[in-house]
């Protein structure tokens, strides 16, 4: 029982990390990442800058774009290059958000994903382009771990009832991850196909998990009822023999 529960717990964790790696693999594609993160960056810029500073920066960028065809703003550690071709196509705050995101995305970070995660200075590397292929590698490794753990769980669960309940719990808990993904999607207004794919997959897992648990409960209930009937019949036979 303890071994079965431990393997089930590891499988839930592995599935959660698999979905996370899959999500970040797509989030580190430039266009998807820009759509998701630029709005967050833009909102933060608007909160930190005064309306006057914001308007002044927009006037300066418009002038530079018209006069020189390129504009640089000193709002980051290094001058921020503005894409003048997008000047009249998107709101100015989104334009700045795109520029800052591109700066983060194309920067080269001298650290691995784990090292970057624990480094405040390098944590933007987690959404940078150099991490894109790494997330896919992690996803494939985790997928292999999922399969191995699922096979182990299958063999350590004795009988089809325990197999059904074990996988039912794993799929049920893993499927509950659809709710935080859904909330994140709505919170950041990120209607992206890969996010929808994750949510659909987890809803399917949730549904299968519920079905397996219900089936295991029904089987247990029927077996218990049959055992009680057999015990009553055996007890009745004993009473007749004694009589």
Describe what you observe in this structure.
The protein is mostly helical. The protein has two domains: 1-28 and 130-243; 30-127, no CATH class. Helices cover 76% and strands 2% of the residues. The protein contains nine helices and two strands. The protein has helices at 2-27, 30-48, 51-68, 92-106, 113-117, 132-156, 159-175, 178-187, 193-242; strands at residues 71-73, 80-82. It has a two-stranded antiparallel sheet. A hairpin with a 6-residue loop joins strand 1 (71-73) and strand 2 (80-82). Helix 1 (2-27) runs antiparallel to helix 6, helix 1 (2-27) packs parallel to helix 7 (159-175) and helix 8 runs antiparallel to helix 9. The mean pLDDT is 86.
- Main sheet: strands, sense, barrel: 2 strands, antiparallel
Query: What is the alpha-carbon Rg in Å?
Result: 28 Å
Shape: elongated
Per DSSP, what share of the residues sits in E-state strands of 2 or more residues? Answer: under 5%
Low-confidence stretches: none
Can you summarize this structure?
The chain is mostly helical. It has helices spanning 2-27, 30-48, 51-68, 92-106, 113-117, 132-156, 159-175, 178-187, 193-242; strands at 71-73, 80-82. The chain contains nine helices and two strands, in the order αααββαααααα.
């Amino acid at each position: 029982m303890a071994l079965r529960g431990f393997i089930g717990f590891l499988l839930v964790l592995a599935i959660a990390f698999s979905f996370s790696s899959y999500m970040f693999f797509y989030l580190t594609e430039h266009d998807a990442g820009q759509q998701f993160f630029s709005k967050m960056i833009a909102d933060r810029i608007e909160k930190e800058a005064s309306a006057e500073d914001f308007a002044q920066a927009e006037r300066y960028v418009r002038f530079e774009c018209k006069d020189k065809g390129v504009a640089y703003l000193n709002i980051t550690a290094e001058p921020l290059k503005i894409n003048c071709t997008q000047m009249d196509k998107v709101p100015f705050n989104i334009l700045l958000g795109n520029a800052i995101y591109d700066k983060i995305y194309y920067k080269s970070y001298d650290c691995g994903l784990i090292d970057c995660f624990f480094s405040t200075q390098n944590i933007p590397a987690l959404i940078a382009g150099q991490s894109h292929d790494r997330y896919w590698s992690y996803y494939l490794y985790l997928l292999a771990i999922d399969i191995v753990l699922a096979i182990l769980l299958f063999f350590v669960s004795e009988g089809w009832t325990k197999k059904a309940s074990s996988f039912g719990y794993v799929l049920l808990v893993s499927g509950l991850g659809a709710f935080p993904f859904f909330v994140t999607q709505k919170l950041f207004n990120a209607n992206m196909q890969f996010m929808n794919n994750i949510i659909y997959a987890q809803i399917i897992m949730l549904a299968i998990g519920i079905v397996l648990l219900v089936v295991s409960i029904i089987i247990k209930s029927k077996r218990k009822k049959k055992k009680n009937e057999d015990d009553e019949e055996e007890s009745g036979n004993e009473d007749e023999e004694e009589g």
